Task: inverse folding
């Protein structure tokens, strides 16, 4: 079992996600800007927890110095490279994520990640964080392709293009491939039981990725 087998197992979910109405509307310019602002605020809060999870993995007992350092670099990348994009939007909009509350699907996702990273083995933690890297790269590439196909036939806000450029870009792809290789090494060292758990976490987090965009599309709120 390998990272590719995880991807294949989650294939039906990923095939639906790459055509998510929120993502397609971002490319064709029809996405409501309020939904995008909502998404960016929620994603900013998600990224802070995601970076914390990466650092927790880097501090695990038995992790090599090289892997620990690389995990910390991934965390910094999430906080600096990705958050710099979000913060540039906040400046343009005159808003902030400070004081905002994680909405239901965001909290469900971050809580799941933190529980797996804190209570399960290192390899399982790595696998749980993998969809955030890999699915984002995949949908970014799909969105780039659709944007090219649409050409000048549609107009979209510059924030949408900046988002597509980042997650469909070569810089992010390099980071993702490095992380995939780290998980691949963990797969080779894992026993069959651990591999099955890794696959389970990967599939669950692919579902949670989809639900994160559902939440943004509908601007989900707590009912109480």
Result:
């Amino acid at each position: 079992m390998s990272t590719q087998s995880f991807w294949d197992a989650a294939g039906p979910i990923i095939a639906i996600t790459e055509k998510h109405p929120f993502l397609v509307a971002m490319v064709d310019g029809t996405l409501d800007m309020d939904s995008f602002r909502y998404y960016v605020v929620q994603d900013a809060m998600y990224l802070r927890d995601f970076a914390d999870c990466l650092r927790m993995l880097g501090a695990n007992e038995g992790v090599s110095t090289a892997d620990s350092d690389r995990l910390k670099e991934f965390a910094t990348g999430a906080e600096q490279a990705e958050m710099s994009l979000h913060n540039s939007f906040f400046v343009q909009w005159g808003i902030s994520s400070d004081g905002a509350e994680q909405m239901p699907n965001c909290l469900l996702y971050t809580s799941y990640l933190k529980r797996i990273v804190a209570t399960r083995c290192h390899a399982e933690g790595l696998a749980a964080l993998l969809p955030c890297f890999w699915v984002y790269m995949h949908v970014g590439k799909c969105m780039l392709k659709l944007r090219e196909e649409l050409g000048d036939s549609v107009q979209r806000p510059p924030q949408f293009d900046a988002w597509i450029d980042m997650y469909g870009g070569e810089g992010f792809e390099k980071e993702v491939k490095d992380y995939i290789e780290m998980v691949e090494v963990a797969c080779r060292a894992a026993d069959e039981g651990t591999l099955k758990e890794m696959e389970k976490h990967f599939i669950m987090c692919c579902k949670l990725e989809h639900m994160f965009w559902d939440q943004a599309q509908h601007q989900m709120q707590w009912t109480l």
Q: What stands out?
A: The longest helix spans residues 65-93. The chain has a mean pLDDT of 95. The chain has one domain: 3-217.
